[in-house]
Design a protein that fits this description.
This protein is mainly alpha-helical. It is built from three helices and no strands. The N and C termini lie far apart (92 Å).
Length: 116
């Protein structure tokens, strides 16, 4: 065999088997991308979603407690905690513990004085 015959046979092999080779590499590439997305991207998105949900609950709790303070300015806020918790549970669809924490945090933010 001469050099030209060898190079022609290599080119002929590549031309005949190129689609199969590309299918194999694309399958490997897609498998790698799926693994990467499941391993690194999906957990990030779950945490980001929880973070946004927690921010929404805090904002709603602030609005509800602000409303209670406006409606009952002379009464202590702690006495209205149950009312705030009930409203947060209805609006956000969360359980009692989460609503109680959100309302307590909102009341705490209102009572803490900013440094002068």
């Amino acid at each position: 065999m001469t050099d030209s015959t060898i190079s022609l046979s290599i080119m002929d092999f590549i031309a005949n088997h190129l689609p199969t080779i590309l299918e194999i590499f694309s399958g490997i590439f897609i498998s790698f991308m799926l693994w990467f997305a499941k391993r690194y991207v999906a957990p990030y998105l779950k945490v980001e979603k929880r973070h946004r949900y927690a921010e929404y609950i805090a904002i709603i709790a602030d609005d509800i407690t602000d409303d209670l303070v406006r409606n009952y300015p002379d009464k202590e806020w702690a006495k209205r905690l149950d009312e705030a918790v009930d409203k947060i549970m209805v609006v956000c669809g969360v359980d009692d513990e989460i609503a109680r924490r959100a309302a307590s945090a909102a009341f705490s933010r209102k009572t803490v004085k900013e440094p002068a």
